[in-house]
Amino acid sequence: MLGTNCGPNSIWKFYAWTHAFLPDFSEIYIVGLTTICCAVWLARNHATFEKKWINATFEIVFTACAFLKYWAGLQKPGMIEVTKKGAEMLKENASQMLLLCGPPMPEANDHTNEGEEWEKW
């Protein structure tokens, strides 16, 4: 997960992993999990139905940040600003990691020849 081998692979590991990084914000854990799941689902739908591939896993993180900011208004009054700040921090960290990851990813049109493969399905 994002260049680390300590990412969670079950719901309980997710809670333990999140608690290690955000020990005082347990009420936001499920919102974080939901945003990641929705971002992955959206990327999957774009690939499956629109044949639009993601170029980097960071696109999923940036989509999750957008969901977090959008859903911040649904949180309890004390958690609205914390959620917005967390989304901004996640976006900043992902941006820094993206800069460190090396050369830019290939253009989206590199998958144009794979359209024939889709037609076989």
Q: Could you explain the architecture of this structure?
A:
- By secondary structure, the protein is mainly alpha-helical.
- It has a domain of 73 residues.
- The chain has five helices and no strands.
- α2 crosses α3 and α3 runs antiparallel to α4.
- The longest helix has 24 residues.
- The protein is globular and about 40 Å long.
- The mean pLDDT is 79.
Overall structural class, as computed from helix and strand content, comes to mainly alpha
Low-confidence stretches: none
Which strand-content bin applies to the residues? under 5%
Largest sheet properties: none
Number of helices: 5
Report the count of strand segments.
0
Helical proportion, percent range: 55-70%
Distance between the termini: 29 Å
Mean pLDDT: 79
| SSE order | HHHHH
Rg, Cα atoms, Å: 17 Å
**Globular, elongated, flat, extended or rod-shaped: what is the shape?**
globular
Keywords: Membrane, Transmembrane, Transmembrane helix
Transmembrane segments: 20-42
